[in-house]
Design a protein that fits this description.
The protein is of the alpha/beta class and 320 residues long. It folds into two domains: 8-231, Alpha-Beta Complex (Spore Coat Polysaccharide Biosynthesis Protein SpsA, Chain A); 237-309, no CATH class. The chain is built from 13 helices and nine strands. Helix 10 (237-252) runs parallel beside helix 12 (282-297). The radius of gyration is 20 Å and the shape is globular.
Length: 320
């Protein structure tokens, strides 16, 4: 159900932030969908040193889009931080983070803004994520949805009842399309630089919940997220190392839970013992050495991350 458009002069500005990196395959579709949005937007692209034609395409075809280029690839989180800092400084009421390989429907942002204004407890609202063709749920999003507070919505749908709100609560949904309120942004801050790419949205969600905001999925809104080709293929050792490292950092940096030193010691001891067990297996020995080293070498940065996350405007105004 689409609500009436709020008056931007009374509700403030919505800044849409897109981080691009060699995104020529999607950027025109992404930006065109935002230009057609029924809610007026300030669109800000932060380009992470693309080497393809992304930047000249935006400059030539989208003069209404603000474009900021970085001197190096900062990763997803830090590039978004640049845009979020600007949005706060210029008085935005909300920021909408959108992946370069995603696009919105005409009323997606309008409905998200209306829902957030109706229930300000929600610091983050996300639409339903479809695949690139719009024919099914996005592969990973379907898993997040199943772990959400879906019971009431499913029951109402099966019984033909209407809910007072189409928004369901969840503990996590990936940051391919997030509407964040300015109040939530001021209290939660930006993305933690300990995460370069992947894991930063889970850490951010943990911090949003720590600050007593809710995270919601608006079941009547849609985006398409075109990433099927990148989901395929075998999991290489290097990829598994990266995933295990990110999982460990997410656990250790979760400020909702104390005792992170215990986690670090347990992780390093576990992998040290597995090294002894697999002395004659070169691959397993190398993997467990890497994980034990990761736990120990990141101890100080994890402590710094947790302390910073509880401060004022962490990872934005401090520049750390």
């Amino acid at each position: 159900m689409t609500g009436s458009a709020p008056n931007p002069s009374s509700t403030g500005l919505v800044y849409c932030i897109i981080v691009t990196y060699n995104g020529i395959a999607w950027v025109e579709k992404c930006l065109n969908s935002l230009i057609r949005s029924s809610y007026p937007l300030t669109v800000l692209v932060v380009d992470n040193c693309s080497t393809d034609s992304t930047v000249p395409t935006i400059r030539e075809n989208f003069p209404q889009v603000r474009l900021i280029g970085t001197e190096k690839n900062l990763g997803f989180g830090q590039a978004n931080n640049i845009g979020m800092q600007i949005a706060l400084e210029e008085g935005a009421s909300h920021v909408f983070l959108l992946n370069q390989d995603a696009w919105v429907e005409k009323d997606t942002i309008l409905d998200l803004v209306n829902a957030q204004l109706k229930d300000p407890r929600f610091g983050i609202l996300s639409p339903v994520h479809l695949n690139g063709a719009g024919t099914a749920l996005d592969h990973y999003f379907s898993g997040y949805l199943l772990r959400s507070d879906l019971k009431e919505w499913v029951g109402a749908a099966l019984l033909g009842r209407s809910l007072l709100s189409p928004v369901i609560s969840t503990s996590f949904v990936n940051a391919a399309a997030w509407l964040i309120s300015a109040e939530c942004l001021r209290r939660t801050g930006g993305f933690d630089p300990i995460f370069f790419h992947y894991g930063e949205d889970l850490n951010y969600s943990q911090r949003v919940l720590y600050h007593n905001f809710l995270i919601g999925i608006h079941m009547d809104t849609r985006i398409c997220h075109d990433r099927e080709l990148r989901l395929a293929g075998p999991v290489a050792t290097a990829i598994q190392r990266k995933r295990d490292k990110i999982h460990f950092l997410n656990q250790a940096c979760d400020i909702r839970h104390a005792g992170y030193w215990t986690l670090i010691l347990r992780r390093s001891l576990r992998h040290s013992l597995l090294m002894l067990r697999n002395l004659f297996d070169k691959d397993k020995l190398a993997f467990n050495f890497y994980m034990a080293k990761t736990a120990v070498s990141h101890a100080s940065s994890i402590g710094r991350s947790r302390r910073s996350a509880k401060g004022k405007l962490p990872f934005l105004s401090t520049g750390k």
